[in-house]
Design brief:
The chain is α/β, with parallel strands linked by helices and 253 residues long. It is built from 10 helices and 9 strands. The strands form 2 sheets. It has a 5-stranded parallel β-sheet, with helices on both faces. A 4-stranded parallel β-sheet has the order 7-6-8-9, with helices on one face. α3 links the parallel β4 and β5. α4 runs antiparallel to α5 and α5 runs parallel beside α10. It starts with a strand and ends in an 8-residue tail after the last helix.
Length: 253
């Protein structure tokens, strides 16, 4: 089977369940594992073109709901497609099983999913059970997915009170006010969005006053792997746990 994968988490998971050799096309963001880097690129995450994908002569193209328009074009050419829903890291186990069903690698996917699920639950169980720490995952407050962010979901899953995410829709000033009124103890700033977060902390008058008066701790981390739900989600959650609680958590036996 010749597969084109249109999302980093999908690509990494396909390798994990033994389908890596079947991948003939990937996006420029699909860089894990290292073996993926030798696969021809068909475009970016959301701007893959029909011609570039079709040139790879795939039997199957796997993507996400945002690829719906492309998939409609491919259907007209008789190319089979499959959609994997975007899920938070805590649901990575189901995502792995789904890819197993799509590719026919169900046995390998089941083994991978069980191991992954066990690791994720162990990480969540290791989080202190006392009063949840007040955490604000501060990325781009103008992001339309602010309230439904999969990384923010991961923070909450580690027994944190995730501040500023309660509104389904909100203007940036309202989000900042929510954050300040809740008085977070810790600000988590992803390296990938440092340029978005720093102006909020340093120039927004309400936030700037809060920073100067309460001095919350600021910790930076890489959110890249967390955003790629799939076989690497346990490793990403483990790194997030270490960032929040300043302690390592070992891989379960």
């Amino acid at each position: 089977m010749r597969i084109v994968s249109l999302a980093p988490g999908i690509t990494e998971t396909l390798f994990a369940i033994g389908c890596g050799d079947s991948i003939v096309g990937r996006t420029s963001y699909c860089d894990l594992p290292d073996a993926a880097k030798s696969i021809p690129v068909v475009g970016g995450f959301s701007d893959c073109g029909r011609e570039a994908v079709a040139e790879r002569k795939p039997d199957l193209v796997i993507g996400m709901s945002l690829h719906g328009r492309l998939f409609a074009q491919l259907h007209r050419e008789g190319i089979r497609t499959a959609t994997v829903e975007a899920l938070p890291p805590r649901c990575a186990e189901e995502m792995v099983r789904s890819l197993g069903r799509i590719t026919g690698c169900e046995a390998a996917a089941q083994t991978c999913a069980e191991r992954l699920g066990s690791s994720i639950r162990a990480i969540q169980d290791a989080a202190p059970k006392q009063q949840p720490i007040k955490v604000c995952y501060l990325c781009d407050i103008h992001c339309p997915n602010w309230s439904a962010c999969t990384i923010a979901d991961a923070v909450t899953g580690l027994n944190c009170y995730n501040i500023g995410r309660g509104r389904s829709t909100a203007a940036p000033d309202e989000i900042v006010r929510d954050i300040v009124e809740s008085k977070p103890q810790l600000l988590l700033v992803p390296d990938e969005h440092a340029d978005d977060a720093e102006p909020v902390m340093e120039t927004h008058p309400v936030m700037k006053e809060f920073m100067n008066s309460h001095h919350p701790e600021i910790r930076c981390f890489s959110s890249k792997r967390l955003a790629r739900t799939g076989s690497g989600s346990a490793e990403a959650l483990r790194a997030l746990f270490t960032t929040i609680y300043s302690k390592e958590i070992s891989e379960p036996c």
